[in-house]
TrEMBL record, chain A:
Record localization: Membrane
Primary location: membrane
GO cellular component: a single term: plasma membrane
PANTHER family registered for this protein in UniProt: FORMATE HYDROGENLYASE SUBUNIT 4, FORMATE HYDROGENLYASE SUBUNIT 4-RELATED
Species of origin: Nitrosarchaeum koreense MY1
Lipid bilayer topology: Multi-pass membrane protein
Highest taxon, organism lineage: Archaea
InterPro entries reported in the protein's UniProt record: ComplexI_Subunit1, NADH_UbQ_OxRdtase_su1/FPO
UniProt protein name: Hydrogenase, membrane subunit 3-like protein (EchB-like)
Listed transmembrane segments: 6-30, 75-97, 103-125, 137-161, 173-194, 260-283, 295-314
Keywords for the protein's UniProt record, in alphabetical order: Membrane, Transmembrane, Transmembrane helix
TrEMBL record, chain B:
Annotated protein name in UniProt: NADH dehydrogenase (Quinone)
Signal peptide boundaries: none
InterPro entries attached to this UniProt entry: ComplexI-like_HydComp, ND/Mrp_TM, Proton_antipo_N
Membrane topology: Multi-pass membrane protein
Main location: membrane
Transmembrane segments: 6-24, 36-54, 74-99, 111-130, 136-154, 166-187, 207-232, 244-265, 277-300, 320-344, 350-368, 389-409, 429-455, 483-507, 533-556, 657-677
Domain NADH:quinone oxidoreductase/Mrp antiporter transmembrane: 131-424
Organism of provenance: Nitrosarchaeum koreense MY1
C-alpha cells in the first residue's frame, strides 16, 4: 500500500467521486436519447439530480409490515456499490486502491447490495416485492456463470483479476483485434444489460407487473431511501460502463499527471461512457422486452460467447 | 508432552463426566447444566490442546499395549490439531446453546439419553481424529456413526425420523465398508495396522495406493455426502435434534474430510506422478456435481433444516473442488498453486463448520419457538426474534460468500485457484478444467437465491401461521452459543490471515505471513499483481463511504419524518398474509428452468358452484410436487432391482428338511473338491 503518495490517493478518491457524481448524468443522457429516438422530447439530462435532491428532502412513508432490514437496505446497498467505485480507474490506468480488492471483489460488493435489495423486496409483505425478488433471484443466479466466465477470459488475456493490472495491460497492447477479447466483450455487454436492468431483461420505466424486476423490489421506498436506491442503481450502471470502456476501449489514459492531462482524460472518459450509454439506449429502443423464460436463452448465448473466448485463449 | 497427555486425559474425563451426569441427573431442576457444562469445558480444553500442538511439536503417545497390533496410539500433528480446533470451537458453541435448547425435551421420558449421547458423540469425533491405528480409528469411527444414529432417531415418535435413521445406518456402513477395504488393502502391503507404516511411501506400489485412495474416497465421501451417495444426509441431519444437527453438519462432515486429507496427503504423499492428475480430476468432478446438485435441491426445499443439509452437500462439493485442484497442481509440480488451492479448501472447511453450525442453531431456535420446520408456515420472525434473525442473516451472508464475511474469502481463494488453470502444461486439461468455473459460479449464484429465500420467507414479511405470529425470542444461552460462531464469521472475514496462518502452520505449508492485517496477494507469471485482497483496507473504505454519504444526505436532505403506513395494496384494502409470495412461488422460475432435476408437477383441482357454469369457481386446489431424481431413479431402481433378485433367491428357503440336507451335501462336496484341488499344487 505504501507505493503510492498521498497525492495519488487523492486522485484515487477523486476518480471514485467522479463516478459517484457523474452517474445520474449518464442516466439522464440515456433517458434523453431514448426519448428522442421514440420521437418524444423527454426530460433534461440533469433530471435525476433534481429528483435525488428533491427526494432527499421529502418525508418518508414506510410500510408498517417492514422491519429494520427494509430501512437499512438502501444504506447497505449504496455503501457497497459506491465502495466498488474506488477500484475503477477513470482517467489513470490504475486505481491506488486496487490492492484492496479486485474485480471479483467488485462483483461481491454488487452481490451484497443485491442480496439486501432482494430481502427488502420480501420484507414489505406485498406480492410485488416477492415477484421482483423471485425474478431477480433467477436472473442473478443464471447470470453468475457468465460473469465469472467473462472475468476468467479477461484475467487470462490481461494477466490478472486486479483491475489496475487489467487496465494497464489492456492499455499497453492494441489487443482489440484478438478474437477472444471480442467474445468476452459481447458477453460483458449482455451482463451489463442484465445487471442494470435494460430492456430485453427488465423494463425499469414501467410499473407493469409483467415486465418489472428491479422496480418492483424498490416499489415501497420513498423519500431519502428511494433517493439512495435510485442513485446507487445509477452508480452501478456507471461502474459497469466504466469497466467496459476501461477494458475494451482503452484510449487516452493520463500518462503524465498534470492539470491539462487530467482534464483531457476526464473529458475523454465522459465522452467514451456517453457514447457507450447512447449506444445502449439506442439498442434498448430497438428491441422489445423478452418473455421472462426467454431471458435464459440470452444468458446462455452470453455463456457460450465467453466459453468461445476461453477456447480462443488456449488455441 | 506431559501436559498434552494431561489435557487428553482431562478431555476424556470431562466428556465422561458429562455423559454420566447426563444419565443420572434426569428430572432434576438444573440437569442441563450437569450435562452440557462439562462438555463445554472439554471443548475448551480441545481448543487449548490444538493450540498447544500448533505452538510446539507433534504429540505422539501410546496407551495400553495389549498386543503390538492393537496399540492405542495417539498421534496429534498439525492436521489433527486443525480438525481438533474445528471440533472444539463448534462443540463449545453448541454445548452452550444446548444448555437451553435441550430443555425442549424436558417432558420426554428419555431426555437423559440425549445428554449422554451428545457427550459421547463429541468425544468419539475427537478420538477418531487423534488415533493413529487402523483398529482404533475404525472403532471410534463406528462409535461416532452409532451415537449419531441414535441421536438421529432420538425423536422416534416421528416415523420419518426412524426411516431416515435406518437409511443413515445402511449408508454409513456402506461407507465404513469401503474405508475398511482401503485399510485392509494397505495392511496387505505393509503388514501393520499402524498409520506410521502407511506413511512409509516406499513400501507400497503406486497402483495399490491409487486403489486404496479411491476406496477411501468413496468411503469417506459417503460420510461427507458426496453425490450420488448423499441421499442419507438430507434425511438424517435434519431428523436429529437441532444441536446435534449442527454438530453433524458442521463437524462430522469435516471428520470425513479429515480422512480424505489424511489419506491423500499423508499416506499417499501426492507427488508428480501422472496418476494423481486423474485422481485430482476425479475429485473435481465429484465436487462439482455435489456442489451443483446440493444447492439445486436446497433451493426448492421447504423444510428449513433439510435445506441447510442440502447446502452442506454443496459446500462439501466446494471443498472437494479446492482439494482436487490442489492435487492436480501438485501432480504438475506447481507447488505454489497447489498450496493456494489447498489453503482455499481447508479455509472453506473451517468456514463451513462455523457458519453451518451457526445456521443449524438458528434453525433450531426457529423450531424451538415455532414448533415447525416448514418455512411455508413461518414469516415475520425478524420482529419477534430479532437476535436470532440477525444471526441467521450473518450466517446467510457468510455462506453465500458475500464480502465482508469469511465465506467470501474462501470462495475468492477457490476462484483464484480455478483461474490459475492456464499454468497447467496441457492444453486439453486447461480448457476442460477452465469450465469448472461455470459450475462453480452457478453454484454461488444459486446459493445466493437459496438463502434469500430461506431468510426472506422465514424472517421477513407477515407471519403465515399462528405458530409464527406467536413466536418469542429464545433464551439467552441459545443466543450466546450462536453469537460465538457469528462473531467468528466476522472475525475470519475481516482478518482472514488468522485462519490462513492457522492452516499454513497446521499443514506445514511453505508460506507464512507475519501479521493478520496483511494483504492476500497473488502474482502472475510476469510478476505483476494478479489479484489481491485486503479486508481491513476494505473495511476502512466501506466505513468512510458510509460516513460520507450519511453526512451528505443529512446536509442536503436535512431532518425528515418517517411515517408508518400500510403496504401498497392496489386500493383493495386489507392485505392478507396469503397474498405474499410463498416459498414455492419464490423458487418457481428456477424450478422451471432446472426442471430436469426436479420433475415439477402441478395438479390443479377446480371445484365449481354449478357444473354447467365454468366461471363461478368455488375453490381451486393446487398441489405442487417435485421429485428428487436421485432417490427416484438411482436408489429406487437399485432397491427394486435387489428386491427382485432377493425374491428369486428366497425360493431356496423351501422349509423342507430334505432340501436342506441336499444343500449341506452339495456344500460338502464342493468343499472337498476345493480342498482336493488345492493340495495337488
Amino acid at each position: 500500500m505504501s507505493d503510492f503518495s498521498i497525492f495519488e490517493y487523492g486522485l484515487g478518491i477523486f476518480q471514485a467521486l467522479l463516478i459517484i457524481v457523474l452517474s445520474p448524468l449518464i442516466v439522464g443522457i440515456m433517458r434523453k436519447i431514448k426519448a428522442k429516438s421514440q420521437k418524444r422530447i423527454g426530460s433534461g439530462i440533469f433530471q435525476l439530480y433534481y429528483d435525488i435532491i428533491k427526494l432527499l428532502k421529502k418525508d418518508e412513508v414506510v410500510s408498517d409490515q417492514s422491519s429494520w432490514l427494509f430501512r437499512y437496505t438502501p444504506w447497505i446497498n449504496f455503501v457497497s456499490i459506491a465502495s466498488a467505485a474506488f477500484f475503477i480507474p477513470v482517467f489513470l490506468v490504475y486505481s491506488p486502491f486496487g490492492v484492496v480488492g479486485d474485480i471479483l471483489f467488485v462483483v461481491g460488493l454488487f452481490a451484497l447490495g443485491r442480496f439486501f435489495t432482494m430481502l427488502a423486496g420480501l420484507d414489505v409483505a406485498s406480492s410485488f416485492g416477492g415477484l421482483g425478488s423471485s425474478r431477480e433471484m433467477m436472473v442473478s443466479a443464471l447470470l453468475e456463470p457468465v460473469l465469472f466466465m467473462t472475468i476468467f477470459v479477461i484475467a487470462l488475456f490481461y494477466g490478472g483479476t486486479n483491475i489496475s493490472t487489467i487496465v494497464t495491460s489492456a492499455n499497453d497492447t492494441s489487443i482489440l483485434i484478438v478474437p477472444g477479447v471480442l467474445f468476452a466483450m459481447i458477453a460483458f455487454f449482455i451482463i451489463m444489460m442484465a445487471e442494470t436492468g435494460k430492456i430485453p431483461f427488465d423494463n425499469p420505466s414501467t410499473h407493469l407487473e409483467l415486465t418489472m424486476i428491479h422496480e418492483s423490489m424498490v416499489l415501497e421506498y420513498s423519500g431519502k431511501n428511494l433517493a439512495l436506491m435510485e442513485w446507487s442503481h445509477a452508480i452501478k450502471q456507471m461502474i459497469l460502463f466504466a469497466l467496459f470502456v476501461d477494458i475494451f476501449f482503452t484510449w487516452n489514459f493520463v500518462e503524465q499527471i498534470s492539470l491539462v492531462g487530467i482534464s483531457i482524460g476526464i473529458l475523454f472518459f465522459i465522452a467514451k461512457v456517453s457514447a457507450l450509454a447512447s449506444f445502449t439506449a439506442f439498442i434498448e429502443t430497438r428491441v422489445a422486452k423478452w418473455r421472462l423464460f426467454r431471458v435464459s436463452d440470452l444468458i446462455a448465448m452470453a455463456i457460450s460467447s465467453s466459453m468461445i473466448g476461453v477456447i480462443f485463449f488456449f488455441l | 508432552m506431559a501436559e498434552n497427555l494431561f489435557i487428553v486425559y482431562a478431555i476424556f474425563a470431562f466428556f465422561s463426566l458429562g455423559a454420566t451426569l447426563g444419565l443420572f441427573t434426569r428430572g432434576q431442576k438444573h440437569h442441563t447444566y450437569f450435562t452440557y457444562i462439562p462438555s463445554a469445558f472439554a471443548s475448551l480444553l480441545t481448543i487449548i490442546l490444538s493450540v498447544v500442538v500448533f505452538s510446539s511439536e507433534n504429540t505422539h503417545l501410546t496407551f495400553f499395549n495389549i498386543q503390538h497390533l492393537f496399540d492405542f496410539e495417539i498421534f496429534i500433528d498439525g492436521v489433527s490439531a486443525f480438525f481438533l480446533l474445528i471440533i472444539g470451537l463448534i462443540s463449545f458453541a453448541v454445548s452452550i446453546y444446548s444448555l437451553s435448547y435441550s430443555k425442549k425435551f424436558d417432558d420426554k421420558k428419555n431426555n437423559s439419553a440425549l445428554g449422554m449421547l451428545f457427550n459421547i458423540f463429541i468425544l468419539s469425533m475427537i478420538l477418531v481424529v487423534i488415533s493413529n491405528n487402523v483398529f482404533f480409528f475404525l472403532i471410534f469411527w463406528e462409535l461416532m456413526s452409532l451415537t449419531s444414529f441414535f441421536l438421529v432417531i432420538y425423536e422416534h415418535e416421528n416415523k420419518n425420523n426412524l426411516k431416515s435413521g435406518l437409511i443413515y445406518l445402511v449408508m454409513t456402513h456402506l461407507g465404513t465398508g469401503f474405508i475398511f477395504a482401503s485399510f485392509i488393502l494397505m495392511y496387505t502391503q505393509t503388514g501393520s495396522f499402524s498409520f506410521d507404516s502407511f506413511r512409509d511411501v516406499t513400501i507400497i506400489p503406486q497402483y495399490v495406493k491409487d486403489i486404496a485412495f479411491v476406496l477411501a474416497f468413496v468411503g469417506f465421501g459417503t460420510k461427507a455426502g458426496m453425490v450420488p451417495l448423499h441421499t442419507w444426509l438430507p434425511k438424517a441431519h435434519p431428523s436429529a435434534p437441532s444441536n446435534v444437527s449442527a454438530l453433524m453438519s458442521a463437524v462430522m462432515l469435516k471428520i470425513a474430510i479429515y480422512g480424505i486429507v489424511r489419506h491423500l496427503f499423508d499416506f499417499n504423499a501426492v507427488d508428480g506422478s501422472p496418476d494423481y492428475v486423474w485422481l485430482g480430476i476425479g475429485i473435481i468432478i465429484v465436487g462439482s456435481i455435489s456442489a451443483l446438485v446440493g444447492i439445486l435441491y436446497a433451493l426448492i426445499e421447504n423444510d428449513i433444516k433439510r435445506a441447510l443439509a442440502f447446502s452442506s452437500i454443496e459446500n462439501v462439493g466446494i471443498i472437494f473442488i479446492g482439494l482436487g485442484f490442489s492435487v492436480v497442481f501438485a501432480a504438475f509440480h506447481l507447488q505454489a498453486l497447489s498450496v493456494l488451492s489447498f489453503i482455499a479448501s481447508m479455509f472453506h472447511t473451517l468456514n463451513h463448520s462455523i457458519f453451518k453450525g451457526l445456521l443449524f442453531m438458528t434453525a433450531g431456535s426457529v423450531y424451538y419457538s415455532t414448533h415447525t420446520k416448514n418455512i411455508e408456515e413461518l414469516g415475520g420472525l425478524i420482529k419477534k426474534m430479532p437476535w436470532t434473525a440477525m444471526m441467521f442473516l450473518i450466517g446467510s451472508i457468510a455462506i453465500v460468500g458475500l464480502p465482508p464475511l469469511n465465506g467470501f474469502i474462501s470462495e475468492w481463494l477457490t476462484l483464484q485457484s480455478l483461474l490459475a488453470v492456464f499454468q497447467i502444461p496441457s492444453n486439453i486439461l486447461q480448457v476442460s478444467l477452465a469450465f469448472t468455473i461455470l459450475v462453480f459460479a452457478l453454484t454461488i449464484g444459486l446459493a445466493g437465491a437459496t438463502f434469500v429465500r430461506l431468510f426472506g420467507i422465514t424472517f421477513l414479511s407477515k407471519g403465515r401461521s399462528t405458530k409464527a405470529v406467536n413466536a418469542v425470542e429464545v433464551p439467552k444461552f441459545m443466543l450466546i452459543g450462536k453469537a460465538i460462531l457469528a462473531s467468528s464469521c466476522v472475525l475470519l472475514g475481516i482478518l482472514p490471515f488468522i485462519g490462513m496462518n492457522l492452516i499454513v502452520s497446521a499443514f506445514n505449508l511453505p508460506y507464512m505471513s507475519s501479521s493478520p492485517f496483511e494483504t492476500i496477494s497473488i502474482t502472475n507469471t510476469s510478476n505483476s499483481n494478479f489479484a489481491s485482497l485486503m479486508m481491513p483496507g476494505m473495511l476502512v473504505i466501506l466505513a468512510s463511504v458510509f460516513v460520507g454519504v450519511f453526512v451528505f444526505v443529512r446536509i442536503i436532505g436535512g431532518k425528515t419524518k418517517t411515517i408508518k403506513y400500510g403496504t401498497w395494496d392496489c386500493g383493495f384494502g386489507n392485505l392478507s398474509e396469503k397474498t405474499q409470495y410463498t416459498a414455492t412461488s419464490l423458487a418457481e422460475p428456477i424450478r422451471r428452468i432446472f426442471g430436469v432435476f426436479y420433475k415439477p408437477h402441478n395438479e390443479v383441482d377446480v371445484d365449481f358452484y354449478t357444473k354447467e357454469n365454468f366461471y363461478l369457481k368455488k375453490s381451486i386446489n393446487v398441489i405442487s410436487t417435485t421429485k428428487n431424481i436421485f432417490d427416484e431413479k438411482l436408489y429406487g431402481k437399485t432397491i427394486s432391482g435387489s428386491l427382485f433378485v432377493l425374491n428369486k433367491i428366497r425360493k431356496i428357503q423351501s422349509g423342507k428338511v430334505n432340501a436342506y440336507i441336499l444343500y449341506i451335501m452339495i456344500t460338502l462336496i464342493t468343499l472337498l473338491l476345493f480342498v482336493g484341488f488345492g493340495t495337488h499344487e
